[in-house]
Amino acid sequence: MKIMNGTNKTIKTLFIVGLIASVFTSCEAPSYPETDVIPGTNGGVELTEYNKLNIAPVNATLGADYMRGIDASEVRALEECGIKFYDENNREKDVFEILAGHGVNWIRLRLWNDYTSALNDEWGPYGYNNLSRTINMAQRAVNNGMKVFLDFHYSDTWADPSNQKCPAEWAEIDDLDVLKNAVADWTVEVLKEMKAAGCEPEMIQLGNEMEGGIFQKGSAVTSSVANSAEILSTVSTAVRTYNSEIQIMLHMSRGGNPGVLSNFYKNFISKVDCDIVGLSYYPYYESHGVISNLQANVDTIVNTYKKKAVIAEISYGYSKDAWSDSTDNTFYSDQESISANLLTGYAGITKENGTSVVKGTLENQAGVVREVIEKTASKGASGIFYWGACYLGVDGNMPSAWENQALFDVNGKVLPTIDVMAVKGK
């Protein structure tokens, strides 16, 4: 997933700031009142008091191994910008302690090769994901009893179906054999460094939403799904040789699209040694399919392909208004009606001006996640990861189009909807 920004002017300013400044500018931390009703900074949304909102448990029996995951990739860069996180009692805490205290048992972290080489790329400012920041977050996750899931983007910036750019380090390699060995060697070296730091991932992802292949831009080697499969197969073999216990995921977008899954199997799943197929499912994108399509894809992965299925990315808005910087949000009112079409049968669907909508509310944010957990777990899914849970925005350094879908309010206080991750089943 990548974040769409409404203005390129803001982005270009960020690159200049990032190049000039040696550290991020500190932002004033909020001072919380005794009440739990915290208004949004710009959007004016008033959040329900924590203790008055009852988040129902997942009505499904989920084992201890079920992945209740959060993608927290932005945390370290946000902290360097002065962002702080608070628990439900307004106490400042390490965000990983807060997450673990609410039932989260896995942390997903993306890794870029060298973000500094992409500072002129329009997606450069978001996240600054390098190995040192990733290790910092992974260590804290492990120290709080959570497992680490490492997402190799194999890019210096965002990777998704329309953005698969070869890292600058490998851009001049024009021999496929040399390239695939370079990628494999770097992957294993990262794992070794994380092991030495006490935070070796138990699961890794080879590419991000890469159903069309990796290195589609900027590579001296011909971009093709066949070459991509050969590269990733070499990487997988190297990882198996290094540590056969590390679970390997291949990840596609549009999780409820059967055609995408069929091609993904033909091009990658059947050719690259992997344990898990990861699916992105954002119910406000029509291309992701209705939830029954998502269930069918999970069933195919588990029972036909004989792989584990994980919902690797999902999110939903708790408001259509709340934001903590000047950047336009990704989730907005028009998408509420799309969600109603995709989440057929969801109890949170209401009528507004004659249109069925799943309004951006705290209850619906939790309810959408609960709905997807229940319906995919019934088909054998092994887990779910919420994307952008901590992705707040900071003017001048790290704007975000995602904070109205985060699991923390715009001032960094955990939202009650996170309790849906504490599912223990019935």
Q: What's the short story on this structure?
A:
The protein is of the alpha/beta class and 426 residues long.
Report the major sheet.
8 strands, parallel, barrel
Shape: globular
Q: How many strand elements?
A: 10
- Helix and strand pattern: HEHHEHEHEHEHEHEHEEHE
Average pLDDT for all residues: 87
Poorly predicted spans = 3-30, 32-44
Please count the helical segments: 10
Tell me the Rg in angstroms.
20 Å
The neighbouring-strand order within the major sheet is 1-2-3-4-5-6-7-10
In percent terms, what proportion of residues is strand? 5-15%
Give the helix proportion (percent range). Answer: 25-40%
What gap, in angstroms, lies between the N and C termini? Answer: 33 Å
Structural class: alpha/beta
Please describe the structure with a list of short key phrases separated by commas or semicolons.
426 residues; alpha/beta; two-stranded antiparallel ribbon; 10 helices; 10 strands
Write the layout of secondary structure elements.
Layout: H1 8-20, E1 67-71, H2 75-80, H3 95-101, E2 106-111, H4 131-143, E3 147-152, H5 176-196, E4 203-206, H6 225-242, E5 247-252, H7 258-269, E6 276-280, H8 291-304, E7 308-314, H9 334-342, E8 350-352, E9 355-357, H10 362-377, E10 383-386
